[in-house]
Design goal:
Blueprint (H helix, E strand, L loop, with lengths): L16 E6 L3 H11 L4 E6 L2 H10 L4 E5 L7 H9 L9 E5 L4 H10 L3 E4 L4 H20 L1
Parallel strand pairs: 1-2, 1-3, 3-4, 4-5
Keywords: Phosphoprotein, Transcription, Transcription regulation
Pfam families: Response_reg
InterPro entries: Bact_response_regulator, CheY-like_superfamily, Sig_transdc_resp-reg_receiver
Length: 143
Amino acid sequence: MAGENCIPFSYVLCDQLAILAVDDDPIQREFCAVYLSTPHAEITTAGSAEEGLALLDQARYDVALIDVDMPGMNGIEMVRRIRAEKRFDDLPVMVITGREDIVSIDQAYAAGATSFMCKPVNWRLLGHQIRFLVRAHRALVAA
């Protein structure tokens, strides 16, 4: 079973993963790189939706973490663009934002988000949610 050699309570992300994290806040990008990176998980960060879309064109990712409030293209529009392309049907997308109002949640899911998390981020919880999200999405695609 994938991840079975993971040491309990050390790394949450034990499967081989490529994660794209898109956030205009450099501190959030750094936290993401530090707290989610493991010997098995590679974190790539982007400072804008436009940069994130360009990275998606260049490499394959197992999950995308996308902030909503960014200058230029916002995260909801980025999710819409991802979902408009058939090649990204198997990409789980988690929206991460400081907003937790009903409208923001509904907009994220209507755009095609697979999951939603509010800031401030609990990095340990996020690691567990990413692990579940990727495994569930892979099982769905395989079915």
